[in-house]
Specification:
five-stranded mixed beta sheet, alpha/beta
Length: about 230
């Protein structure tokens, strides 16, 4: 009798680690002997779905979101595993001039002088950036020329020439071809987002272990991420 194929392990993941996971998926599936059905979306969008009753086997979200879901009993207590740290950065279309963001003052001037800017509404980076430009006193000026996408990859607009600069997690910017990373925002204007994995079901523990082993410091750096 032929062995029945095993059902896929369902994974909810934030966009910040999409490039990393897409590269690792074939190896992960081979290691656990099971297909993986990965669903990528901003943390805020995944949280709305989870709070509406949707579930998976494993989730990778911001550390704060994972802690909140464990407190609510939606994720298994004690299953959190910090995977990586991400910084917010800036990208431009490949071949375009690279603006100066070396200092907070230079970065502020670049945001004011840019003809168009793209950032996201739902992602952790977009929420932070909206607060940042408000703190810098330039929210009105920036938003007057900004395209704020509901969710997705802002660098796609830069690649198409529809935005002069794109703001998002460096790892998300790197997932888009035909762009160049200017760099992370200056440390004084940036934030370090920790992304963590946790379990809906204990049966997915093997996949969580495999992801943690595969996310080596070298592989993380290649995708614009830092080791947690």
């Amino acid at each position: 009798m032929l062995e029945q194929p095993r059902a896929p392990v369902r994974l909810f993941s934030t966009l910040a680690v999409m490039g990393l996971l897409q590269e690792m998926l074939p190896g992960l599936e081979a290691e656990i002997g099971q297909p993986i059905a990965a669903d990528f979306a901003p943390t805020a969008a995944l949280l709305r779905r989870i709070e509406a009753g949707e579930a998976a086997d494993l989730a990778i979200l911001t550390a704060e979101a994972v802690e909140a879901l464990m407190t609510e009993g939606r994720l298994l207590p004690g299953s959190r595993r910090d995977l990586c740290i991400s910084l917010i950065g800036m990208a431009v279309r490949a071949g375009a001039p690279r603006p100066d963001i070396a200092t907070p003052e230079a970065c502020r001037a670049t945001l004011l002088s840019a003809r168009s800017i793209a950032y996201s509404r739902a992602g952790a980076s977009g929420i932070f950036f909206a607060g940042l430009i408000k703190r810098l006193g330039i929210a009105e000026a920036v938003n007057a020329k900004a395209t704020v996408i509901p969710q997705g990859l802002t660098a796609e607009l830069a690649a198409l020439g529809e935005a002069e600069i794109a703001i998002q997690q460096v790892s998300e910017l790197m997932a888009v071809p035909d762009i160049e990373i200017v760099g992370p925002l200056p440390e004084a204007l940036n934030t370090r987002a920790v992304f963590s994995a946790a379990l809906f079901t204990a049966e997915a523990g093997g996949l969580l272990d495999a992801i943690a082993r595969a996310a080596t410091p070298e592989r993380l750096r290649a995708k614009g991420l830092l080791a947690a």
